[in-house]
Structures are given as C-alpha cells and as structure tokens.
C-alpha cells in the first residue's frame, strides 16, 4: 500500500495553507493566510474562491459539521467552523456566508472540533482554556483552564470526554463534573497535534520531539515512532480507523493503525500543517506551508486468499494475479473502489455507487502421466503421504486430500509412481461479475461468510447472498453503524453478532436469515467491557459458539443459542491480545502473553474441563514482537502481522482439521484410525471430547484409554451398563459437568430415585433430601447415606432438617438395599418395555 500524491505546478494560495476539509469525497475547502477560502472540485479539476475573509482574520483550523445530525443523514456537509487568530470562531455556510462570529478566547483559537453528532463544539486557544459550545455558538462550559496554550483538541468516541494537549502532557477530561481526569506525559517536546478515532478508540499524538505515537484510551503506549528529521506538524485518522497519516516538513507518511509505516513520500510542500481524510477514506489532502494543497490517493492495497493476490493498482482498477499459473487479469470499475474483501471463493468490491461480486470457480484435479511444471517436489511428497495414509487407514474405494484448498478425489489403485495430479483455481466471471446498486452511502466494512456477506454503511447493516439478493437488515436500539469494525462485528453462515458501543458489555446476536434476535431475543451480557468478538464458522446453528476478549484481556467462549436459561460463559485463556477462528473447522487461535495458542477443540470446556489443556497447541511467541495481530487463519496456516508490519506464516498440523471433518460426518472408526496413525496425545484428547459431546461413548472409551484417563474409562463403562437410555443420557450430562440438566432429565422421565442418588453421589445432601421429601420416597435412603458419610469422617449431624427427619427413624440397610434393587429392576423392565414398543412400531412400518 502506498500514497499516489499530486501537486499543482503553481500554488493556488499565495500564503501558507493552514487547514483543509472535505465536504464530499470529491470536494475540498482550503483556508490560507492570504485570507481566501477556496473550493476544489476533484472531478472537474476546477478551483474557485468561496469567500475572502477580512484582512485581520487569519484562519487556523477548519472542521465541517458532521453529515449525520439529529439522526438525519445529509448527502454532504452544509456548514463548517473556522477558528482564527483574532480569538474568534466563525460558523460559515457552504456558500461562504458567515452565519455567526463568536468571541471565544483571549489570543488565537488554535483548534475547533464538532462532536460526532454535531451537537457540541470544543475549542482551545492560546489562553489555555478548553470551552464547549452549542451548535448555535452559545457557551455551555469552560471545561479546563491552564497556564500554557492548548494546541489541539479531539472528542472521545462517545462524545462524553475531550482530549487536549498541555505542553508535553495529554489530558482526557470527562464532560461530567467531579469525574477524575486522565493525564500522562506523552512526549519529550511540545505536543502539536492529537486525534482520537471513534471506531478503534485509539489516540494519535505528535510533537516537537519529532515523534508520533499511538495510545489506547487509557493512556497506554502502543507504538512510538523513531525520531523524524523535523517536528511532526499534523496527524489524522482515516474514518474507519484502519489507517492514519502523518505530516511534517516535506514529509507525508501513511501508517497502519498499529503504528508501522506503509509508505513515506517526500513532496515539495514545506510543512504540512493539517491533514484531512475524505469521507470514503480513499484519499487525503494536506495543507502545505508553501501555499500548495497536496492530494494523495491510497493505492496498491492488497487482498490475498489461497493462490490469488488482488491489488488495487489505480482508483478504478484492480489486478488479479493467480500465483499458480501466473495468470493476470485486470478488473475495471466505473467508480472508484472504496472497500473490498476476498474470502470463501468470492471477491466483493464496493465502489461509491455499486457492489460487485466475483465468484472463483474451483476445478478439481485432473490426472496426468507427466507432472506439470508447477508441481514441486514437496507436492509429490504430499501426494505420497496421501497414498500412505490411504493404505494405513484402510480406505478401499476412494479418498480425498485437501491441498491448497482444492479437493482431489483419487481411486484407491492410484500410486505415486503412476500418476501426478494438477490443480488450479479458475473463474469464469472476472468479466461478468454480479452488480447491484448500493442502498446508502459509503460502505465502511465488508464481512464474508461461506454463504453470504455483510455490508456496513452509515445507514445500517445489510446481509446479501452471493447472488446479490438482500437477505436481511438487522437493527437494534441506538445502532450506530459508523463506528463498527471487524473486531466489533462477526458473521457466520447463520448468525450475526454485533457489539453494542453504547454499552460495551453487551453483544446483540441475530439470525442471519431473518435479521431477528436469536434464541429468546435477549442480548448476551458480560460482566466487563468487551474488546473483540468472533463467531465460529462451521457446525450446526444450535452449536454455534462466540469467542470474545474483554477489557482484562481474558478470552471467553459461550453458545449463541439461548432460550430462557442463563448460558454459561467460560474463560479459556488469559492475557489474549488477538484471536481468529479457522475458516473450515472450529479451531480457534490466539496470542496470549508470550505464547501463540491453538485451541483444537474449544468446545472441550463444556464437555470435560480437565481435558482442555491437553487439546492445545502452544508455540513461543516472543519473536512476534509487541502487539502482533492475527490476520487470518485459513486451512492449517495462520498469518500474523508483527508490530513492524512484517508478516509471519505459521503452519500447524493438518490432522486436527481432518479429525473435525470425520467427526462432523460421524465417521468415528476413521477418526480412531487417524488418531492411531498420528500417535499424538492431543489428537486423542480432542477425539475424547468430541465423542462425549456427540454421545458416542464407545469412541470416548477408546480415546480416554489412549491418554491414560483410567477413572473416566471406568465411569464410561458404568454408563454403558446402565439399564435405561434416560439414565445413560443423564450420566453423560453428569460426565460433562451439567448437574442440573442431568437431574431435570431424570425427574422428567420419572426416575426419582436415580435423581436422588445422583445428588447423594455428588454430596448435594440438601437437594437429595428435598427431592426425597417432595416425592415421598427414599427419605431413609438419604438419611442412611448421610449418616454413613458423617461416620466416615468422625462428624456429628448439625443440619436441623436432617435432625428433624432422623427423629424416630431407624436406619435399616437391608431394607434400603432391597428398595434400591427394586428401583433398578423397575428401570430395567421399563427399558425393556420401551424397546419392545419401538421394535413393534418398526415391524409395522
């Protein structure tokens, strides 16, 4: 990615340009010390004067009123605030009419900024004051007063806080009185500029120490640049928070949100005093000290998926490169490209007016007696391994190997010495994409799932099929789509999850097809603020899981399908910086503290918590540097971006993915064979948890035996010997730690004694007695086991309820054993009768 800059041969302004601001993606206003405000039309390349300011008015800062005001979205900005050196700020209409001039500060008004709703204005000045004004220019409050000039100001994402500079310090001051402010030393020199993004909630600062820095909203340093040659005079976030720009003397730099630099330009501009991004985030403009206005377009963005690399080479042109056959295609668009996403065999591109959907068609392997040139020796080895696996796993008819995302089906008689196969990805619609018009304005986010994709713009959330059909448009109270990003929205084949920015402890979960809230309609609420969310991509809807990281950097997982009962939210990791689900199987990876971790089967935490640590793959992450980010997790390869922008590719074992495929197809014998071939304890642990989750206790017994969990093998054998299906189901639930569900199942099926005995075995004495008394049975059984328990530990009864029911009751173990045997016999008879009924029904059918 880089910036394509453009400067006129001769500057339009005669003096330095102090500030610039966009009305639309193609129209810019600039202000200069020559007292002129000029309008630049990028479509026609025309420049015209809007108004000439009085000779004693020197403009310093400009900010357009946000386009969405009071819930009404305007097609373009209609007015702006202009601060000046005479201590005033001016409210000026788009046509140049000065609507109001307000005496605001003693000395120059150094900066003025509207909040995101356009309902309040913050100004700062040489007098050291920070003031809040109404939309009409009435003073609401003087937020702060200090002895040094305040050079820059920015609103917090929720418009409830204001960030401003104070010498070398940055200060975050809440608007509410008597709330503690946050203050920290940010630079070694005077801080000249700051910006706060509402989407990623990160802070930029720059100063005379020639550095720019990235902070989180708590004042923690995330990135600090190396010293530049000259002081940094301007910084600005792009609207979506993915990029920011840095300006200095003859310097313009494009950076990723984590701080590392994409590109460095050295234009002949003098100092760049102000930077403004266009509404769609595709270009920026800079106010230059030599009278120029510099324009820069973001080009050479790249998207990768399997063997395709797509590059935006011009504003309206993409290049598609197939690295396997080195084929190159050019995609031309009518309008400039704003957003794009490449995944799941589809390229989705949004321009300023339309959406394009390209489908990548996968061609299966073709047999050939001579190896094609593209096949490397490593691929031959993979094919040999495939044949070896085929023989070991005793496949007789055919087998499939997944290679580079393409499935090749080979007959069982194929051997490496007789055949090679070639593979490729091709598409038949690079020139015939599906095209449809966009409903609202600029698309800010595209998310893809296997079956559909999501477009997010200022108007809402829109879920489309890859055929271009609008599926649904979910909504929730107080929805603000302009501040959503890939960390706060997640999409799967059947579910959409959105983090609420108003209350960051809440996640709204929707059915993707209907757009209605999922389950009982209640949102998912956590105890602390949530930072990042992600839905798993495979499996059934009722098994869909969501993983999220909270403010304490703890990783949790929970089910999204909930009806009435409170769903268990379980912690599976600590100090997790970033996470991602696999695209083809429900594997989860994350970077926690100094380790890179893959949870091969995260659902283990719901089945057997003790097994969770045995289902992990861990790798030292110390060489990833500070604050690495997982880019994607495709197949068995994870791509991680380090803090310096470099990419690291990690390959994990392909066997867990194969195991997931076998289990999802109920191929338990194949799964066992695979584990025996691999001979890895992690694989056996995963299979054990998967088998219990799917209630296949025979496979679970084999898997637990292979990892030496003898006590669990014995319990599984006990479960298999139980007389009725209901008892077996209840004890499988108990095995997974679901005590309440097990008891409920037994009670619903009339197995009262078994429910009482379960509570006795778990030492839930009060509940056991409560059930016995309620159903008027086995009270003496509960008292007997309680008495034996106390005698074993040399204790005396102190529970009043047990003392009450024990009065006058003599424990007769022979009588109790006879009753228990009678209950077991009844259960056997019931199970046999049920089996007879099922058999007769089958015969009649």
Fill in the keyword field for this structure.
cytoskeleton, TPR_IFT80_172_dom, four-stranded antiparallel sheet, WD40_repeat_dom_sf, 845 residues, single chain, WD repeat, 20% helix, alpha+beta
Written account of the structure:
The protein has a four-stranded antiparallel sheet, with no helix packed on it. Helices cover 20% and strands 39% of the residues. By secondary structure, it is α+β, with helices and mostly antiparallel strands. Mean pLDDT is 84; it is low at 363-384, 386-425 and 841-845. The longest helix has 32 residues, at 813-844. It has 14 helices and 61 strands.
Level of helix content? 10-25%
Q: Total helix count?
A: 14
| Biggest sheet record | 4 strands, antiparallel
Cα distance, first to last residue? 67 Å
Which consecutive residue ranges, at least 5 long each, have pLDDT under 50? 363-384, 386-425, 841-845
Radius of gyration over alpha carbons?
Answer: 33 Å
* Mean pLDDT metric: 84
* Overall form: elongated
Helices and strands: which structural class? alpha+beta
Main sheet: which strands, in order across? 1-30-29-28
Percent strand equals: 35-45%
Number of strands: 61
Subcellular location: Cytoplasm, Cytoskeleton, Cilium axoneme; Cytoplasm, Cytoskeleton, Cilium basal body
Domain IFT80 second beta-propeller: 300-360, 423-655
Keywords: Cell projection, Cilium, Cytoplasm, Cytoskeleton, Repeat, WD repeat
InterPro entries: Beta-prop_IFT80_2nd, TPR_IFT80_172_dom, WD40/YVTN_repeat-like_dom_sf, WD40_repeat_dom_sf, WD40_rpt
